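Deliverable D4.2, example record:
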Amino acid sequence: MVAIDVVHVSAVSASLVLAGVLLFAGVSKLAGDWRADVRAIGVPWVLAAPVPFVEIAVGALLVVQWQRRPVALAAIALLVVFTGFIALELSHGRRPTCACFGSRSSARLGPGHLARNAIFIALGVLAAIG
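Output generated by the structure prediction step:
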């Protein structure tokens, strides 16, 4: 019985941390010049425009714990896409400025971004299985 409670508390905690990351990322993008950031990294606007809204929606759903498991899976999918984009850029020798957190992101993409996203994905997995 105690193990189930620990797993549940861990899952809720992981989902709340991930929610904070997604909410911060989405709001930061909207607060800055997201269109210019997107242009700089070369992603078509039609693909990038909804990203902050999706991040905010997923983050908000994780905060209120509505359907935590499927929402955590959606967060994982989003992070896998972001991680794939970063890996693709790095594999082609490109290191644009990260727009992960809007204008609050000034570092160029690098292996640290892949490691950070791996941690976020692990939080999503924990949130989904708990």
